[in-house]
Write a structure and sequence with these properties.
This protein has 489 residues and is of the alpha/beta class. 39% of the residues lie in helices and 22% in strands. Strands 11-12-17-16-15-18 form a six-stranded antiparallel β-barrel. It has a five-stranded parallel beta sheet with strand order 2-1-3-4-5, sandwiched between helices. A four-stranded parallel beta sheet has the order 7-6-9-10, sandwiched between helices. Helix 8 crosses helix 10. Bound molecules: manganese (II) ion. Manganese (II) ion binds next to loops.
């Protein structure tokens, strides 16, 4: 899908045709110039002067699958009662760009004509009131449109809106059920489909095994070549790698046939398979598919969505699990990994991931599964968890700083990422556990906490952010008030 965003400019007839022509000319110029800097095109649609024009453009936007969001701005004053009928029906993400055509006040040239043409300062306030009055989920971005920071923020919002569009049409394939007795990976699939659009359905592991038997040796040869291009083979057991290739090709065939962008499986249900898919799931994640272990379809879906939100549609966002802490006197580190399935998009580019085979005691593996082993890269990142609170969904996001792992851990047979949690390790743990965050997360170097907040706003779900400024006391109060507020909605 070639997504685009619509630029709708507010005005009215009061100013006469000359001003309206100028507004339209400038709006087109701004949309064209901004589009060159933005990740998706911003298409000028209309200088709206009537209730009917606004209602029409909103109707069109709602029905156009390629329209991923609407950006509004009021060059001149646009009485906002004429926006009510349109905005009340808007179903696409909405951003109010509070900008102005000219950057500075022209000292000598400014007169009353100039003021009447360039009055975004009060036009945008009238416009903002109405959206506030309608309690509309929206993003407000202020600043001069040629400022690179403004284009940067608008671009980030656009990518977030792509995350909303992908969410609304997302299909998740489940192989097997949730891991027995686990609570946090459960959830109300009807509620999730209503709120987020996800179609979460199950397919038999037997169907996958049948598909695996149909995979040709030639297609396995081709995928082995791809593996060799990207990874170092550090095992004698080529048959184990070929088996993973067979699994990958079969899973991919089923996902593509059903239009699914994410899948989950469980080590408790591998009947007819020799290995838990390790390398297979890792390479599928590198190709942009979402994945969740132990039947965690929520984290699988979130991984697919956050990958789509990353630059180019396949950013460094991946399924992760908090495993072990390293407490130090001054702070400490978290070690994240999974039993096999860590996406190589997180890998430090300084070293190629290695394909290794090791015994895996958990689950029903007849053979030692092949998997990619690597270190995660250093850099600012976030971890995100979606939990079902019963009656509502809560999205928890924590800021982290990934570091080069401070030890080699030569006997650890899986990919690993090490990070410092905000505000520090112990307070971070207390906040995360207080909020009910899962052990499974999506870790992302590409997507920001602000984007996840905006995504939660677009989807109408609760958002909790654990940042460098968070305290347990403030968080407890926030969660208590959130609980009351969400019961009223
Ligand atoms: Mn797990």
């Amino acid at each position: 899908m070639q997504y685009r965003f619509w630029f709708v400019v507010g005005s009215q007839f009061l100013y006469g045709p000359e001003v309206l022509e100028t507004v339209e000319k400038r709006a087109k110029e701004m949309a064209a110039e901004l589009s060159a800097k933005l990740p998706y095109p911003l298409v000028y649609k209309v200088t709206a002067k009537t209730n009917a024009e606004i209602a029409d453009v909103v109707r069109e936007a709602n029905y156009d699958r390629a329209c991923a969001g609407v950006v509004t701005w009021c060059h001149t004053f646009s009485p906002s009662k004429m926006w009510i009928n349109g905005l009340a029906n808007l179903q696409k993400p909405y951003c109010h760009l509070a900008t102005q055509y000219n950057k500075e006040i022209p000292n000598d040239a400014i007169d009353m004509d100039f003021m009447n043409l360039n009055q975004a300062a009060h036009g945008d306030r009238e416009h903002g009131f109405l959206a506030a009055r309608l309690r509309m989920p929206r993003k407000v971005i202020a600043g001069h449109w040629q400022d690179p920071a403004v284009a940067g923020r608008l671009g980030s919002w656009m990518k977030t809106a792509i995350g909303a569009a992908v969410s609304k049409e997302l299909k998740v394939m489940r192989f097997g059920d949730n891991m027995r007795e686990v609570a946090v990976t459960e959830g109300d699939k009807v509620e999730v489909q209503t709120k987020l659009g996800w179609q979460v359905n199950t397919w038999a592991v037997g169907d996958l095994v049948k598909e695996m038997h149909a995979v040709s040796e030639e297609s396995i040869d081709a995928l082995m070549d791809t593996y060799r291009q990207h990874y170092d083979i550090a095992t004698e057991d080529l048959a184990a790698i070929r088996y993973q290739a067979r699994e990958e090709l079969a899973i991919r065939a089923m996902l593509d046939r059903e239009g699914c962008r994410a899948f989950s499986n469980t080590f408790q249900d591998l009947y007819g398979m020799e290995q838990l898919p390790g390398l297979a799931s890792q390479h599928l994640m590198a190709e942009g598919y979402g994945y969740g272990g132990e039947g965690d379809w929520k984290v699988a879906a979130m991984t697919a969505i956050m990958k789509a939100m990353g630059e180019g549609g396949n950013g460094a966002s991946a399924f992760m699990e908090d495993y072990t802490y390293h407490f130090t006197d001054d702070d400490g580190y978290s070690l994240g990994a999974h039993m096999l399935e860590v996406c190589p998009s997180l890998a430090d580019p300084a070293a190629r991931p290695r394909i290794e085979t090791h015994h895996l005691g958990i689950g029903m593996n007849e053979k030692d599964p092949a998997r990619l082993v690597f270190e995660g890269k250093a850099g600012d990142a976030i971890v995100v968890s979606l939990v079902d609170m019963g009656g509502r969904l809560r999205l928890i996001c924590q800021d982290i700083v990934c570091v080069k792992p401070i030890m080699e851990m030569p006997n650890l047979p899986v990919a690993r990422v090490m990070w410092k949690a905000m505000p520090n390790l112990t307070t971070g743990i207390e906040c995360w556990i207080t909020a009910g965050g899962a052990h499974h997360t999506v870790l992302s170097y590409d997507v920001s906490a602000e984007q996840m907040k905006d995504w939660a706003c677009m989807m109408g779900i609760e958002f909790v952010h654990i940042s460098k400024d968070t305290t347990v006391e403030a968080l407890e109060k926030e969660l208590f008030l959130n609980d009351l507020a969400w019961k009223l909605r």
